[in-house]
Specification:
This is Bacterioferritin-associated ferredoxin. Belongs to the Bfd family. Pfam families: Fer2_BFD (PF04324). 60% of the residues lie in helices and 6% in strands. A two-stranded antiparallel ribbon has the order 1-2. The protein has a single domain, classed as Orthogonal Bundle (Arc Repressor Mutant, subunit A), CATH 1.10.10.1100. Helix 1 packs across helix 2 and helix 1 crosses helix 3. The longest helix has 15 residues. A hairpin with a 4-residue loop joins strand 1 and strand 2.
């Protein structure tokens, strides 16, 4: 199914971007373009991110660890 008509990105392309390490809509947009143009599909992109991460506990744990590292205060790494 097409998720982003602006760039012709499908739900599979978004899922593949998440499987490759994208954890946010901005990261997905950088990888496949979905959500990077007009933004109308970002809610759908976020839903696909959540569903894809929920499907694999290891991937989700790695994603949460990565996000925790990225948002932790400087100097606590």
């Amino acid at each position: 199914m097409y998720v982003c008509l602006c760039v012709g990105a499908t739900n599979q392309m978004v899922s593949d971007a998440v499987a490759a390490g994208a954890c946010t809509s901005k990261e997905v947009a950088a990888m496949c373009g979905a959500g990077g143009d007009c933004g109308r599909c970002r809610c759908t992109v976020r839903g696909i991110i959540e569903a894809t991460l929920a499907a694999g506990a290891t991937t989700r744990d790695q994603a949460l660890d990565r996000l925790a590292f990225e948002i932790s205060p400087v100097g606590s790494h």
